[in-house]
Amino acid sequence: MISRRAREQIIGMKLERSLICTDVCLKKVVVNAMGNLGGVRNRLSSKLNNTNILKILILDFLIKDGSCYGYELSAKIEAEMNYMWKPSNGLIYPLLRHMEENMWLVGWWDEPDKKTRRNYRITDEGIKHFNFIKLMYKPLLEESLAITRGVLNKIYTSK
């Protein structure tokens, strides 16, 4: 028998997936409809933020590297971002706890009595979630990159 907590987490994950799918589909419909109105700009906000970017990076590192602890993940992300961005402790540790609560990660203490270093590894459910958000985030990342390039070109390209 499945526990109440597990059932709630499964329902929450299905709801999150449904909301993301609905948001992306709605965005496409609205953009297509607005395009026919003479170039009205897309004002729908995306679901892509620092937390979601950090989540996909953590899952990717854990798939490729096996287990890591929080500080190690933070250092790897900082190095991967060419030392231009390092997730704060106030962002990474609550996210790791959230991901563990959603059964995307399993965590354990090196020394349970001291609770000095908590290691994490990805679960099968975490791999499924990674594959899902990888598909969902790609168009959002491409859109963000195109907007950023457009702003850079507009402001910093000499005419």
Please describe what this structure looks like:
The chain has 159 residues and is mainly α. Helix 2 (50-65) crosses helix 5 (124-156). The chain folds into two domains: 1-42, no CATH class; 46-156, Winged helix-like DNA-binding domain superfamily/Winged helix DNA-binding domain (Arc Repressor Mutant, subunit A, Orthogonal Bundle). The longest helix is centred in the C-terminal third of the chain and has 33 residues, at 124-156. It is built from five helices and three strands. The protein has a three-stranded antiparallel sheet with strand order 1-3-2. It is 66% helix and 8% strand. The model is unreliable at 29-41 (pLDDT under 50).
Cα end-to-end separation: 68 Å
Main sheet characteristics: 3 strands, antiparallel
CATH class of the largest domain: Mainly Alpha
What would you call the quaternary organization?
A: single chain
Q: Count of helices?
A: 5
Structural class: mainly alpha
Percent in helix: 55-70%
Mean pLDDT: 81
Number of domains: 2
Shape category: globular
